[in-house]
Here is the input.
Amino acid sequence: MRKAIFSATAAIFLVLSGPSLAVESIEIPKRDWSFQGIFGTYDRASMQRGLQIYKESCSGCHSLNLIYFRNLTDLGYTEAQVKAFAAEYEVQDGPNDEGEMYNRPAQPQDRFVKPFPNDNAARAGNNGALPPDLSLMVEARIGGPNYVYALLTGYADVPAGTELMEGMNYNKYFPGHQIAMASPLSEDGIDYEDGTKATVAQQAEDIVTFLAWASEPNMEERKKMGIKVLIFLIVLTGILIAVKKRVWADVH
Amino acid sequence: MSTAPQWKNPVVRWVDERLPVFTYMDHEYNQFPMPRNLNYFWNFGALASIVLVVLVVTGIMLAMQYTPHVDHAFNSVERIMRDVNYGWLIRYIHMNGASMFFIVVYIHMFRGLYYGSYKAPRELLWMLGVVILLLMMGTAFMGYVLPWGQMSYWGATVITNLFSAIPVVGEWIVTLLWGGFAVDNATLNRFFSLHYLLPFVLIGVVGAHVVALHISKSNNPDGIEMKGPQDSVPFHPYFTAKDSVGMGFFLIFFAFFVFFAPNFFGEPDNYIEANALVTPAHIVPEWYFLPFYAILRSITFDVLFIPAKLMGVLLMFGSILILFILPWLDTARVRSAKYRPIYKYVFWVFFIDCLVLGWVGSQPAEGAALLVGQVGTFYYFIHFLVVMPVLGKIETPLPLPASIAEPVTGGGGGASAGATAAKMEKS
Here is the structure.
């Protein structure tokens, strides 16, 4: 009985505390992800395709400020590949001995290069809207990867009776349904390097997997350690229960 | 009751004769008498002290990497998450640790309410506990501001603005909290400073709480005092062993969240950097503040000459401060709900009221949720101000057992046995 009350109490506390209770009027469909569950890992091939999408479709407007080129080894690339990938970008460095700033090819220790020098430039280039940084996009939205996937695949024709503001697009899952970003993904809109057929659903899944990694690059390490820690704690608790029974044997 | 130990080791004896730390430890944590009938709800005090230590240790480590500046705070936290060795682990332990602290302390408090642990002679012990709760709340609130996410910033704005409702000095207090005229860098700096300071104040009050506990000894499920050695067992090994079992289960629970659902208790909005120009659609505090937030927002009308906002603030603080006088509001002479046939149910009604208020706090303050919040708030205060005083007078308690050692004896004891025995214990 006491145990029942305890677990009920704990359960109620947990249910009450979840952010799921926050305002949520639009139902977001749930999908299965390679990285969910306690054994989940990021699908390397999907992440690599996601990086290609970020590079070709997203990076024109969206920054990825928290990611360094060196982090790309997580995607399964070798250091040489990362170096070559970085070298395609140019970054400003300096001042040099003459006091001048100069440009050089990016190196693995550099951050991803921003598309705009500052927020005002970004707004000026995007009809007044600011394209958010994508580094934490998956963690920073209620619904996480499901929401980002739904948003990317949720573009639709404007329903009768809805009037869009100038330059806006209709999206089923965006709060308010009017989003400044035009549908970024299109059927066969990208030639995947690994030959995968580039459906919109495939592209959305790949970019979300990539962005989920960008949000939490240490997730795999965390879960791996977590399993070890839990096994240890369960064994320890078993021993502690045995000790306690032994100690209390003469009292009960 | 306890005997002075004879220390064999000459160094130990030399130290102990000059500073009796060994005798103290032996007295308070080895021989110390504990009621033999405690259930697992009595683990939560020990668990709370474990979480407190975990929070202080991880917090000190985080402070080594964190930058309290509006331009860098958010990114310095992400730097900890991504580039500091095991930084993600330290931070997830710290942020989930805060939730664990409140879970443990709330269970600890509800246990106290159910078994009447706040009643004489433990009034001061209980009141120190309320001080601990207040310090925890202040510390947790300021800690939540430090990552400088959207919820940090807007939560700080909403909560600090509450003080402006205080007549005459309100605006002055708000400016003092902010260190300026808006939540800004000065606010972040002082919150960081206080967030580092208050846990050590907390530890001091916990010390006083524990000293008070060791004077009056633990209450127990029967709510009667220990009358002799047959009623008690020494702390060691009995409760070192039992508390360890509780600790094992607790650490499993804690670790599950740290490793497999680290952001469960958080708000996604806090992974967006603070922006004074964009207000989140729905500002919610951390889960442990939700019932109090519901009380705050339930007052939507002026009460006589008191404006609605001020009344909400008064009730929110009042809902915690009222706990200070609970030992005198409760007129029952029997402690444990086990022997109080009506209070047994009243307790659960109150418990559910708190959960309902928590739910209301997570909802927008409008429509049905608002109405439920108003009823819930009304009942919260009725529980303390009317039900507790009246119930103690009209309820006929069940006969108390003669002693802890022989709990099943019909008719023995009597309602006041506990209180008289308690006075004798104080020596």
User: Anything to note?
Assistant: The longest helix of chain B spans residues 185-216.
